[in-house]
Amino acid sequence: MKKIVIDPITRIEGHLRVEVEVDEEGVVQEAYASGQLFRGIEIILKNRDPRDAGLLAGRICGVCTNSHFRAAISSVEDAYDIKPPDNARIIRDLMAMALFIQDHVVHFYHLHSLDFVDVTSALKADAALTSLQALKYSKNPYRNSATHYTEVLAKLQNFVKAGKLGPFANGYWGHSAYKLTPEQNLIIISHYLEALKFQTNISKAVAIFGGKTPHPQSIVVGGVTSVADMLNPQRLNDYIFSIKEAKEFVERAYLSDMKLLATAYRNEIKEGLGRANGNFLAVGGYAFDEEQKLFSSGVIYGHDFSKIEEFDESKISEEIDRAWYSGDSIDNEICYTDLNEDGTLKTAKSSDKYSWIKAPRYDAKSMESGPLARVLVSYLKGNKLIKPFVDEFLQDTNLELMDLSSTVGRNAARAIESLYVCEYIFKLVSRLLQNIKYYNTDTWTKYDFEKLPKSAKGRAFFEVPRGVLSHHISIKEQKIQNYSVIAPTTWNASPKDKEGKRGAYEEALLGIKIQDVTKPLEVLRVIHSFDPCLACAVHVIETKGKELGMYKIKTL
Amino acid sequence: MRLLIIGGGIAAVFFANNIKKANSSVDVTILSEEKHEPYDRIHLCRLVDESATIGEISLPLDPSVHLELNQKIIKIDKQSRRVYSKDAMFGYDKLIIATGSLPNAPSYIKGVKNAAVFRSADDCELIKDGVKEREVVLVGGGPIGLELLETLSKMPEIKKIFLLIRSNFLYDKNLSSEAMKIIEQSYTKEKKVEICFEDEILDTVIENAEIKLLKTKEKEIKNPFLIFGIGIRPNIESFREDLACNRGILTNTFMQSEDENIYAIGECSEVEKFAFVAGHVEACTQQARSAISHILQNEPQEFEPKTTIDMLKVGEFTLVDARSPKFGKEYEKVVISKENSVDEYFLKNRKVLRYIGINSNVDVCYIQNLIQSAKAIELDALYRAAKIGKRGKLVCGCTGAYYNDLVEIVAQNGVNSFADLAEFSQAGRVCGKCRGEVVKIIKESQHLIDASVVKKSPKDKELEKKLQEAKKRVAKFNKEHPHNTLDENNLDAALESMDIAKDEVNRWVSMVTANMQLHPKFEDIVAKGVKSLNKIPIIWLELADCSGNSEAFIKSANPAIEDLIFDYISLDYHELLMSASGDESESLLEEIIKNQKGEYILMVEGAVPLGLDGKYLRMGSKGETGIELLKRCAKDAAFVIAVGSCAFDGGVVAAAPNPTGAIGVSEALKREDIINISGCPTNPVNIVGTLLYYMMFEEMPPLDKFNRPLWAYEGRVHDNCERRGHFELGEFVEEWGDEGAKKGWCLFKMGCKGPYAYVNCPTMKFNKGTSWPVQAGHGCMACTEKGFFDKFANERVYKGDRE
Question: Which one of B45, B56, B646, B794 has the lowest number of neighbouring Cβ atoms within 10 Å?
Answer without folding.
Answer: B56
